């Protein structure tokens, strides 16, 4: 067994080195090279910019909205204050956790104070797995439409039709769930307000 | 549960069955040493490494090569993690990893586990992610496949002294299977929105004026092999729940397909190699049977939701720790897929699943991940159970059992029992240690039965080389870093070594032609027997522990008990 161990040393060293070179450096570099040239937007994180070219966030990453004029994303457990895109995380609270129940109860109370009635969609009052979930279910978005419409002086029907328009449907009708991207929706909302007030 | 949810699950199942044959054929070409395109690359590797590719190794030689290679891999990865602060490609300027954490991480990635006691985006440089972790994502999968190939040769060869050449098997699996498919997948993921950049984090000013630092990196290249190699170690802390690591429902579907495809294909590689592909289909059928039962239970539990939250006026299924774009059906399916194999990537937090929804992934790992299983490791694990199943069938009729033309005798049975008994011993033994020590009890965040589940899940995941977690457990302590590393090591090599020993013994035997008295190992009777034995052995071993954890947890939640 000793000679076999000795004989394995050189192949071990050389293979580790070669595979590190090929799969650890060349492969990611080649993918990055192609991606940066052909698909620079996606390759750099689908960053959105304002009119001056300053980044305002990523189309794929949740950011917080608290004002009544905007659609609010799901609650977040990423980082200390939530929505920390350099520290994705979930609560990892157990189904029987008192902390989890209390947190949900508090969010339900807030929703009721805003005038939301009936059973609430679960995504509206629970935190996501990444803490950066960029989406809401259409149901959770529709419930916020009256608040947004009131704050912006818009027709509720108009806000609701924008939600319906911005809802992405499952691929082939079965892969995925209908969802609204909160950040993209809010950008549309600002554009809608701009054109409406311009009239 | 919804019709669309089940349609997606059935589409997934059909695609896996359809892809198994081409994948199995591809791997058969590697197994049988068929000359591949760009053969000069392979020969160049052998020349530099001083390997004679035509030399056959005995099982001992094969095992020694494997152990030296893996220990070397652990040492190299440990060094990279420890020294990353002084190495290039570190745009966020992270320092070296703490020693025990680096040790745990090195063992974790070399054993194909990818248990992570750190958050990737806040601890690792790009160099560590690529030249450290990605490399072992390739190699640990290639090693698993090599062991599967060696085991297949044990059944397929007659009166042979060798079981192949470890170096050749690892090189070919890496160069001609894992790497080319990963290149295609990585580019597909970029198209879907997965970043691939060496730049630093993006600092954005949000629409409401807050500052948001957005971590990016070479994610796509790591993601591709993380799934294909059933590794599961995330670039980001949230793993494949992170929108950058899984931007759409379609990228998610592709990830699930690639977790399963090689493991499913290997069953047919086996069938082809032993001269009867129906032997492979029979194994795949037993696997898919167990898989669909697991999906039905997990999906049912998650869709039913949490009565404690329903009482607050919240509708529908359990969405805590899940992402809207995937929804409940895909998250439940993914949880089963990732634990049926040794992947361990997650798109939802298993700790926040309902108790029964969390029981399914835990039980999958405790069975030894042989429902499809890890790349290579799934096949050798299920073949051990095939040996056990023919042995039990042989006892019933009083004949020496045989499997695909090889007589199963005392030596094979002793070694098979070691391979079956070692992981449960590690899981239950170490869980017990954690439950009676202060350092162990300091780990779980949850109280009561669910806290016990967090510990049991961790040791099940590590021994099965899965790597998913009930994330509430604080694993980055000296106690857990060391014990989980031990658990991963024993769970990996405590199975591989007996498997190679069986392979060596079987290869030396004659092949006996199938006679009228042979127990048929194709057909419905065999599929049912194999599935039943897997569930009974796993159930007998783990039911008491599961009763203390998820089952007690479910009863408490149903009664509305809050902890």
TrEMBL record, chain A:
Pfam assignment, any one: KdpC
Membrane topology: Single-pass membrane protein
Main location: membrane
Location of this chain's protein in the cell: Cell membrane
InterPro entries noted in UniProt: KdpC (IPR003820)
UniProt-annotated stretches for the region Disordered: 72-96
Subunit structure: The system is composed of three essential subunits: KdpA, KdpB and KdpC.
NCBIfam families: kdpC, PRK00315.1
Protein name as annotated: Potassium-transporting ATPase KdpC subunit
Organism for this UniProt entry: Sphingomonas echinoides
Gene: kdpC
TrEMBL record, chain B:
Subcellular location as annotated: Cell membrane
Magnesium found in the keyword field: no
TM annotation in the entry: 59-81, 93-110, 130-152, 173-192, 253-274, 281-301, 326-349, 370-395, 415-443, 455-473, 479-503, 524-547
Top-level taxon of origin: Bacteria
Signal sequence region: none
Keywords annotated in UniProt: Cell membrane, Ion transport, Membrane, Potassium, Potassium transport, Transmembrane, Transmembrane helix, Transport
Membrane topology recorded in Swiss-Prot or TrEMBL: Multi-pass membrane protein
Keyword Transmembrane part of the UniProt annotation: yes
Cited function: Part of the high-affinity ATP-driven potassium transport (or Kdp) system, which catalyzes the hydrolysis of ATP coupled with the electrogenic transport of potassium into the cytoplasm. This subunit binds the extracellular potassium ions and delivers the ions to the membrane domain of KdpB through an intramembrane tunnel.
Subunit structure, interactors included: The system is composed of three essential subunits: KdpA, KdpB and KdpC.
Family: Belongs to the KdpA family.
HAMAP family attached to this UniProt entry: KdpA (MF_00275)
Protein known as: Potassium-transporting ATPase potassium-binding subunit
Lineage: Bacteria, Pseudomonadati, Pseudomonadota, Alphaproteobacteria, Sphingomonadales
Gene giving rise to this polypeptide: kdpA
């Amino acid at each position: 067994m000793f000679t076999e161990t000795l004989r394995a040393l050189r192949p071990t060293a050389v293979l580790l080195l070669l595979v590190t070179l090929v799969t650890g450096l060349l492969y990611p570099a080649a993918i990055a090279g192609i991606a940066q040239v052909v698909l620079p937007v996606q390759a750099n994180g689908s960053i959105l910019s304002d009119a001056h070219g300053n980044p305002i966030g990523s189309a794929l990453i949740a950011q917080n909205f608290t004002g009544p004029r905007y659609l609010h994303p799901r609650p977040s457990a990423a980082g200390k204050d939530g929505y920390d895109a350099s520290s994705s995380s979930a609560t990892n609270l157990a189904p029987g956790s008192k902390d989890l129940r209390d947190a949900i109860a508090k969010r339900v109370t807030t929703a009721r104070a805003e005038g939301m009635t009936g059973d609430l969609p679960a995504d509206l009052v629970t935190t996501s797995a990444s803490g950066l979930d960029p989406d809401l279910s259409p149901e959770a978005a529709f419930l916020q439409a009256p608040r947004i419409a009131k704050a912006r002086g818009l027709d509720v029907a108009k806000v609701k039709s924008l939600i319906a328009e911005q809802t992405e449907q499952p691929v082939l009708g079965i892969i995925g769930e209908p969802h609204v991207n909160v950040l993209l929706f809010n950008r549309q909302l600002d554009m809608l307000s701009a054109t409406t007030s311009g009239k | 549960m919804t019709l669309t949810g089940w349609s997606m699950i059935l589409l997934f199942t059909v695609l896996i069955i359809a892809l198994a044959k081409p994948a199995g054929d591809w791997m058969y070409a590697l197994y049988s040493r068929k000359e591949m395109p760009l053969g000069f690359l392979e020969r160049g590797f052998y020349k530099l490494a001083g390997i004679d590719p035509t030399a056959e190794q005995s099982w001992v030689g094969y095992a020694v090569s494997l152990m030296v290679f893996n220990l070397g891999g652990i040492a190299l990865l440990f060094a990279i993690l420890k020294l990353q602060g002084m190495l290039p490609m570190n745009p966020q300027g992270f320092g070296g990893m703490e020693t025990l954490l680096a040790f745990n991480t090195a063992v974790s990635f070399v054993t194909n586990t990818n248990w992570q006691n750190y958050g990737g985006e806040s601890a690792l440089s790009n160099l560590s992610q690529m030249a450290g972790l990605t490399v072992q994502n390739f190699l640990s999968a290639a090693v698993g496949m090599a062991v599967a190939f060696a085991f297949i040769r044990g059944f397929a060869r007659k009166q042979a002294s060798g079981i192949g050449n470890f170096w050749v098997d690892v090189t070919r699996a890496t160069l001609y299977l894992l790497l080319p498919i990963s290149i295609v997948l990585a580019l597909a993921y970029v198209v879907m929105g997965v970043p691939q950049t060496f730049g630093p984090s993006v600092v954005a000013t949000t629409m409401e004026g807050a500052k948001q630092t957005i971590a990016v990196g070479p994610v796509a290249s790591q993601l591709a092999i993380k799934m294909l190699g059933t590794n599961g170690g995330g670039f980001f802390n949230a793993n494949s729940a992170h929108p950058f690591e899984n931007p759409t429902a379609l990228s998610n579907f592709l990830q699930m397909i690639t977790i399963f495809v090689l493991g499913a294909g290997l069953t047919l590689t086996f069938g082809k190699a032993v001269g009867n592909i129906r032997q492979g289909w029979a194994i795949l059928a037993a696997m898919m049977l167990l898989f669909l039962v697991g999906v039905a239970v997990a999906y049912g539990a998650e869709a039913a939701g949490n009565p404690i939250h329903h009482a607050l006026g919240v509708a529908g299924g359990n969405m805590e720790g899940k992402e809207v774009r995937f929804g409940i059906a895909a998250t439940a399916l993914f949880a089963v897929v990732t634990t049926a194999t040794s992947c361990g990537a997650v798109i939802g937090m298993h700790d926040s699943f309902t108790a029964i929804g969390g029981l399914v992934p835990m039980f999958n790992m405790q069975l030894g991940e042989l429902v499809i299983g890890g790349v290579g490791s799934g096949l050798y694990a299920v073949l051990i159970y095939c040996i056990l199943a023919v042995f039990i069938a042989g006892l019933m009729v009083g004949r020496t059992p045989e499997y695909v033309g090889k007589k199963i005798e005392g030596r094979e049975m002793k070694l098979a029992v070691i391979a079956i008994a070692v992981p449960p011993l590690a899981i239950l033994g170490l869980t017990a240690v954690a439950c009676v020590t202060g350092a162990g009890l300091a780990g779980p965040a949850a109280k009561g039965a669910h806290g016990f589940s967090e510990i049991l899940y961790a040791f099940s995941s590590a021994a099965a080389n899965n790597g998913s977690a009930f994330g509430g457990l604080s694993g980055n302590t000296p106690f857990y870093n060391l014990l989980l590393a031990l658990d991963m090591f024993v769970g990996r090599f405590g199975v591989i070594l007996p498997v190679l020993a069986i392979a060596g013994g079987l290869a030396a035997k004659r092949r006996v032609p199938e006679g009228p008295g042979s127990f048929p190992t194709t057909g419905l009777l065999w599929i049912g027997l194999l599935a039943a034995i897997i569930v009974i052995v796993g159930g007998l071993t783990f039911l008491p522990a599961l009763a203390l954890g998820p089952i007690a947890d479910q009863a408490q939640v149903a009664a509305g008990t809050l902890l």
